[in-house]
Amino acid sequence: MKRRVLAVAADLALILYFVFALFPVAWMVILSLKPTNELFSTYFSFSPTFDSYRTVLGAGGDQGVPFVRFFVNSLVVSVGAVALSLAIGLPAAYAAARWRFRGSENLMFTLLSFRFAPELTVVIPLFVLYQKLGLFDTYVGMVWVLQLVTLPLIVWIMRSYFSDLSPELEQAALLDGYTRKQAFFKVALPLVKPGIAAVSLLAFIFAWNNFVFPLILTSSNAQTVTVGALSFLGGDRPKYNLTAAAALVSVVPPLLLALTIQRYLVRGLSFGAVKS
Amino acid sequence: MTRPAAIGLRSVHKRYGKSTALDGLDLEVAEGEFFCLLGPSGAGKTTTLKTIAGLEEPDSGAVELGGVDMAGVEPYDRGVAMCFESYALYPHRTAYDNLASPLRSPRHRLPAHEARERIGDIAELLGIGALLDRPVGRLSNGQRQRVALGRVLVRPARAFLLDEPLSHLDAKLRQAMRAELRAIGSVRRTTTLYVTHDSVEALALGDRIGVIRDGRMVQTGTREELWHRPYDTFVARSFGRPRINLLPGTVTAEGHFRSPDGAYELPLTVPAPPGAAVQLGVRPRDIGLLGPGKGSGVEPAGTDRGTALELTGTVHVSELLGRATEVTVRIGGQQLSLVVPRADAAGLRPDRPVRLSVPPESLLLFEADRPARPGRRIST
To answer: A124 and A97: one domain?
Structure first.
């Protein structure tokens, strides 16, 4: 009897939590489906329409906001930032995991410290620099500045993956006649693939969600969805329905990525590599 | 001038942080020799192999291969193959691809069909021919260990470094592989340094054996040398099951060995300073059983009967070891174990008197053990 009461209570608590957690999302969905004239009604009956989505994706009348372009910008900038971070970060993480050199810990800490400091502390000097260097509102500039977000993440997480790998695997490769570079590419790298998948996804989401850097360092050419979605709020009347639709559309790529990569997020590939 | 040693370590030191792994290790393995390195865990066996392979840099001292100093030579240029105790198999590949790894590397590349043939031969030899398609994650420990050994044997090498390569096989297979290992053609031709903590393996396999302890080589020699002339009690204890009897006592003024409670005295063939604290070593299989004793007391032995010395004690326990029996005999306050044919021990009952014969040439005399230093053998 007591157990049943507890079970019901647990279910109730869970339902309450779901309502709490999903309400903002539900609100966004509802908002995005409302026609403009019913936007500020607080009751739930309205005539749903996909007009907002049509407008946001550029099919309807142009609202002066090239959202599709922002969307492409976000993709280019985020993928670019993750790719660059992987190219630099994987060898760095490997070196940090395998060798203690002078200052290696300081270097790692410095890298981590990029994540402590609020982006706002550096963004004004960066703005001035970017203006002078001609990096303002460019893909290169955005990919570069997003390294502050993605690189520390990739280096720190991948270092722990490489540390978990027995160095004897690469040592065996060296004795098989492979160079250190080949041992890295043929042995170590394939074994941390699940880690690479997981950390790439995480880095992509962080890059995609970044707001402050595109807000200050881009204007129109390289602006991303996070800033772009807010453009609908400007003008004489804030169009919350368009912003909601834009926000929901911009959730799609990270969500799709997460679903496709899910399989890799489960570790366990290296089972049996080394006698425990 | 003879040919340079295939493997030579000269006073190699290696520390990891505060702990010393190798403390001035010297080692010389001749060309084509099968050398067994025996020692307890933590003695520095694996570090020795890794230092030779170039995977660990010695803090001081030199590593030579074929007489050439290997300082600064990369592992892949040293031409040695190593079988890791952890197997170190590539977990994302099949058994076949693991075996093929050295034959696909830039340094030992073979054309694919030759490689396939070679891998087939080795796999057959190791009894893993049917497992080649499996990912190594789906192999048992014993199977993985054989794949790891195979990865060493498929390729030509100036030396094989084998780190406990049979330790995870089941008893029957281990015995079979031990017998076969030395007969494998490539092993016969190649200098092999074999690390083990199993003295039976070392005695069975090694042309020569080195006993290592706390990062130092205690003694190297043939199995006969180590058996009959052990450097100290540590080496003596390392070989033989049941272990050698080490009886503490003192040297009398006449140069006899005397047990602490005076229960017996034995004449010694080696001169020892009177009054010195010593240990008498005698292997269980060297002691013979003469039959039941006359009285229940302990009679001082040492009377010459032919050449064998005679001791009298009482039976403590006896334990069957298959065809032989291990008998533990009490002499005064000391216990002595001996191994005799099962038939000889048939009539023994606990607490009955018994007479033992000890050939004087089988007696070994050691200094008393000191903390952190086993007693050295006293010889003429």
So the answer is: yes
